[in-house]
Amino acid sequence: MKKNIVLFLISILFIGSTTKKIVQPNIIIIFMDDMGYGDLACYGALDYQTPNIDKLASEGIRFTNFLAAQAVCSASRAALLTGCYPNRIGISGALMPNSKIGIGQNEMTIAEMLKQKGYATGIFGKWHLGHQKQFLPLQHGFDEYLGIPYSNDMWPVDFDGKPITNADDYRKITYPPLPLIENNEQIETINDLKGQDKLTTLYTEKALGFIKRNKNKPFFLYLPHSMVHVPLGVSDKFKGKSKQGFFGDVMMEVDWSVGEIMKTLRENGLDKNTLVIFTSDNGPWLNFGNHAGSTAGLREGKGEIFEGGNRVPCIMRWKGVTPEGVICNQLTSTLDILPTLAKICGTKLSDNKIDGIDILPILKGNLSNSPRKYFYYYYANNELRAVRRDNWKLVLPHKNGQGYETMLPGVNGFPGKYAKVDVPMALYDLRRDSGEEYDVQTLNPEIVAELQEVAETARQDLGDNLTKISGKNNRLSGKID
């Protein structure tokens, strides 16, 4: 009799274990604009605090060797959402309001991938993957959208906040009033700096509402802030609060936004089943001086292939899964987010070739795991400007266009001048020289030869306009129907 009872209890336990519902984690990606490697307190920022983001880092993994796929707006966003080098899918640079292209219909975004598992999907913020209807978020996997379709400086307003009256100014010719779009329709225009001041709070409030409405189902929230891209904007509740001035005020409001997101997760019982990823699209736009962020000593910034342009902060926090308060120094990238989410959620990847690598072992605490060995630094119109293997980086001959090291920056919202600069080939050991100051080619000819082979592999796959090579595996962007 006792034996039968034991067998019965075991069978009940077995049935319970095999029928237990698998809970899909919620996914939140907070994607900053032009926020540099040194712009968070936990990465060394000065004269303002980011306690909510720092807490996120203390409860998760802080990545120190995390690269945006390309150091400019549209390209980096295309890479995040598709897991592809942006030049693979025909996106380069920053799409303008007169652009005739956008993300292709055959590219699978994170949102479309997660829809396979019944996720609710929402985006609140800057899109910048095409502003015509066929390119907007609702046509690429998102259920809800509110935000601006491209960068917040693409408007006919001067750096002093006044409307441009010069009919010959390219901004007056090229840029219409900055639209605020809800789903597929424009609902208003942003015409002055006061309109910019409301964006961080507006996006945050919309994100909080999305979380509350979808608390009983898995959701993907994509929050690509317009800040800290110029022109800077901040609400009255943070104006004048930072010792660093306007930029610090803006960062304090961003930190407040993260705090509101985390508080809402806790209040709705979602804290333990939500993976939160906080990172940036590229480094700071240093031409804007005190209205730009910091690279914490990395070389150059946005628009360049040196580490200040590509290396960005990244924090991943998933309570009960990611270890708390640890640092990951392994080479990782925004490219790797999509395939990692696919592994976590059990979704099918696109049939198209992607470039991301699953880093779930790192999220689970295997900090010695090194899935990514190589990285290609592309910029402009499919120009291969550098390649990397582990901590070795070979910069290839090219011209850069920012002139950070030769021109003084501007102040108070005005840019400095730009300059074309010839960049020679150089080899850097990033383990010892993260500022990329010391060319060690002559000491390591075998590394140079190896990385030149890596560059050639990249060219054959993705092409390279600097050497006039067409890639074998590129796909076309979307075009206006």
Layout of secondary structure:
Blueprint: H1 2-19, E1 26-32, H2 51-58, E2 61-63, E3 66-67, H3 73-82, E4 101-102, H4 110-115, E5 120-124, E6 144-147, H5 170-174, E7 178-182, E8 185-190, H6 193-197, H7 199-213, E9 219-224, H8 246-267, E10 274-280, H9 307-310, E11 314-317, E12 326-328, E13 332-333, H10 337-345, H11 360-363, E14 374-379, E15 383-389, E16 392-395, E17 398-400, E18 421-423, E19 426-429, H12 445-462, E20 463-464, E21 469-470, E22 478-479
Parallel strand pairs: 1-9, 1-10, 2-12, 3-13, 5-6, 5-9
Antiparallel strand pairs: 2-11, 4-22, 6-7, 7-8, 10-11, 14-15, 15-16, 16-19, 17-18, 20-21
Helix pairs in contact: 7-8
Mind explaining what this structure looks like?
This protein is of the alpha/beta class and 481 residues long. The protein folds into two domains: 347 residues, Alkaline Phosphatase, subunit A, CATH 3.40.720.10; 104 residues, Arylsulfatase, C-terminal domain. The chain is built from twelve helices and 22 strands. The strands form six sheets. Strands 8-7-6-5-9-1-10-11-2-12 form a ten-stranded mixed β-sheet. Strand 20 and strand 21 form a beta hairpin. Helix 7 packs parallel to helix 8. The radius of gyration is 23 Å and the shape is globular. InterPro entries: Alkaline_phosphatase_core_sf, Sulfatase, Sulfatase_N. Its EC number is 3.1.6.-.
